[in-house]
């Protein structure tokens, strides 16, 4: 008779050696290898958005720091805000107006239009032909080419005219596209901006960041009723 194999001494459980289902098997832990995510469209958009944050697209005479939009708008007088309603060109010519309009477009998720317009304005300030090529390619890949991360709404003919001069750009390469986007904002976004609450608050001299104070109602005290006898005849 074979000696039993003691598997669990504390439980006093034993079994014969020839029973395979009592064999202790060493378990192995399998770890799935870490899959490196390929750079997708989201990462590409993030990289291109960093380009827009460089000085050539956001100089001091255009958009300020992200936190300066509210500060700039709060310092605008009602008289200045009224002038923004005279024309779209007047609005964009004022730094505070450009900041306020940009903030408004962000609420409509259409800020790519004003960013493209600003990029074109900066592009036309290039002083040498050596500066044109890298700027032109960045603008084209960010705003104009098919499936661009911030593609603006352009007709087929305007896209074709613009793409033909990208390899050898000139100072007027983006003029047609910029004019198209300008008219789109002027006819569509600008009227809605003039009807928006933030703009109307500026015209009326209200600061949306400052809460309106309400008068507290007067509380009666016991002394107010001293010496007053109730009139039970009205019951």
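^ structure tokens above, recovered residues below v
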């Amino acid at each position: 008779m074979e000696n039993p194999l003691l598997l669990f001494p504390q439980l006093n459980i034993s079994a014969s050696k020839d029973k395979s289902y009592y064999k202790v098997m060493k378990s192995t832990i399998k770890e799935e290898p870490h899959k490196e995510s390929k750079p997708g469209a989201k990462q590409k958009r993030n990289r291109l958005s960093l380009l827009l944050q460089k000085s050539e697209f956001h100089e001091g005479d255009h958009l300020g720091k992200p936190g300066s939009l509210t500060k700039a708008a709060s310092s605008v007088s009602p008289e200045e805000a009224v002038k923004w309603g005279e024309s779209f060109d007047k609005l964009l010519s004022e730094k505070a107006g450009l900041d306020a309009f940009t903030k408004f477009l962000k609420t409509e998720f259409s800020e790519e239009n004003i960013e493209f317009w600003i990029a074109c304005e900066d592009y036309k300030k290039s002083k040498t032909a050596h500066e044109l090529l890298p700027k032109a390619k960045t603008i084209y890949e960010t705003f104009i080419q098919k499936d661009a991360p911030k593609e603006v709404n352009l007709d087929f003919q305007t896209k074709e005219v613009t793409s033909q001069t990208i390899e050898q750009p000139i100072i007027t390469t983006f003029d047609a596209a910029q004019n198209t986007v300008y008219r789109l904002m002027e006819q569509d976004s600008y009227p809605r901006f003039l009807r928006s609450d933030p703009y109307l608050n500026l015209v009326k001299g209200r600061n949306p960041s400052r809460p309106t104070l309400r008068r507290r109602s007067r509380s009666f005290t016991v002394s107010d009723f001293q010496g007053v006898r109730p009139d039970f005849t009205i019951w």
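Strands lie at 5-8, 13-15.
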